[in-house]
């Protein structure tokens, strides 16, 4: 265990003539079954697509249809792709490059950011929570809290500027999407923004590195899990591996070039009183190419107590299905334990 704290999957994968993965990385099928979804070969299905430009500058009829699209995607899938979002393609390339350069730092340089607590503003490591896990995941990560207070590693050079510009752009897209989702729930567009204090929203960027794995059928990049927060916005380096759980089976996500991949999180399920479920997803690995993804989780403000929106409870005829919990407390609870499906939601279900 101690050796893992100062090492990484990248270091392991870079070893010459690596033909087998260590036993600690062998992810048994029963583990995925224990977490809910059936295992097996993932299928390919069309994923909902949302045209962001029509939400922000379309005609009233076009905007109304996009709001309906958002409602459908959140209720039926918990996942959608956002096209024409207006975030500069060059900026997404620079953030991918910067995160790649971070992972290329020496182990000694990265050790400065190992972190000791799950709510440390900058934290890098391997697996998910190596201090409590018995089986490790084929993944290295960098997590940075970027809002309401901005933090950044001081290496690589100029990374901080790109990180701040990129996450600010993502935050703007998220707030407009949440306005449309608020309307799809029958609320005013500003309602969620107001009650969740999105001006002070907690935003965390997580860069994930999945090096080539000599036995990808035995390893898992990330097991089935749901995300804390409202919406997670993800980009990747052109290498697939994300799968979502939809109607009892796994579905491969084939991204439209330049699109954001968006999934609903636990707090979207809580505030909508279960109407918009938090989607389970996982990351698989391959034996040929390094996959890198960058996800940005977007939640309410850390101090906000999230519970079902009162206006959705229909004057008491529809009882609340979740108790309220302060967002930062939920985040600490989830991040401190093993990654286990969306079991953290069970702590707040009534």
UniProtKB/TrEMBL annotation:
Keyword vocabulary terms for this entry: Iron, Metal-binding, Oxidoreductase
Record-linked InterPro entries: DIOX_N, IPNS-like_FE2OG_OXY, IPNS-like_sf, Oxoglu/Fe-dep_dioxygenase_dom, Plant_2OG-oxidoreductases
SUPFAM superfamilies in the cross-refs: Clavaminate synthase-like
Example GO molecular function: metal ion binding
Top-level division of the source organism's lineage: Eukaryota
Domain Fe2OG dioxygenase: 200-300
Entry keyword S-adenosyl-L-methionine: no
Gene3D superfamilies: B-lactam Antibiotic, Isopenicillin N Synthase, Chain (2.60.120.330)
PROSITE patterns: FE2OG_OXY
Family, per entry: Belongs to the iron/ascorbate-dependent oxidoreductase family.
PANTHER family xrefs: OXOGLUTARATE/IRON-DEPENDENT DIOXYGENASE
Protein name: Protein DMR6-LIKE OXYGENASE 2-like
Organism for this UniProt entry: Punica granatum (Pomegranate)
Encoding gene per record: LOC116203553
């Amino acid at each position: 265990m101690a050796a893992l704290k100062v090492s990484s999957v990248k270091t392991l994968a870079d070893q010459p003539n690596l033909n087998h993965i260590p036993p600690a990385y062998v992810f048994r099928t029963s583990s995925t079954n224990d977490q809910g979804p059936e295992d097996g070969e993932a299928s390919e299905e069309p994923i909902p697509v949302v045209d962001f430009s029509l939400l922000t500058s379309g005609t009233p009829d076009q905007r109304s249809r996009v709001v309906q699209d958002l409602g459908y995607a959140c209720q039926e899938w918990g996942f959608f792709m956002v096209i024409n979002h207006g975030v500069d393609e060059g900026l997404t390339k620079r953030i991918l490059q910067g995160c790649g350069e971070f992972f290329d730092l020496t182990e000694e340089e990265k050790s400065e950011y190992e972190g000791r607590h799950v709510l440390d503003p900058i934290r890098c490591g391997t697996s998910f929570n190596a201090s409590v896990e018995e089986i490790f995941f084929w993944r290295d990560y960098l997590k940075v809290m970027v809002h309401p207070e901005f933090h950044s590693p001081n290496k690589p050079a100029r990374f901080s500027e790109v990180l701040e510009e990129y996450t600010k752009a993502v935050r703007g897209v998220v707030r407009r999407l949440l306005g449309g989702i608020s309307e799809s729930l029958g609320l005013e567009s500003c309602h969620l923004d107001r009650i969740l204090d999105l001006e002070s929203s907690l935003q965390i960027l997580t860069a994930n590195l999945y090096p080539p794995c000599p036995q990808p059928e035995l390893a898992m990049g990330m097991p089935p899990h749901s995300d804390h927060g409202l919406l997670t916005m993800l980009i990747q380096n052109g290498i697939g591996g994300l799968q979502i759980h939809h109607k009892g089976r796994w579905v491969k996500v084939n991204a439209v070039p330049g699109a954001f991949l968006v999934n609903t999180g636990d707090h979207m399920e809580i505030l909508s009183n279960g109407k918009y479920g938090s989607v389970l997803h996982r990351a698989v690995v391959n034996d040929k190419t390094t996959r890198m993804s960058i996800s940005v989780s977007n939640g309410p403000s850390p101090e906000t107590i999230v519970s079902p929106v009162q206006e959705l409870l229909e004057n008491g005829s529809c009882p609340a299905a979740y108790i309220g919990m302060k967002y930062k407390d939920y985040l600490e609870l989830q991040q401190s334990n093993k990654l286990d499906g969306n079991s953290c939601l069970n702590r707040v279900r009534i």
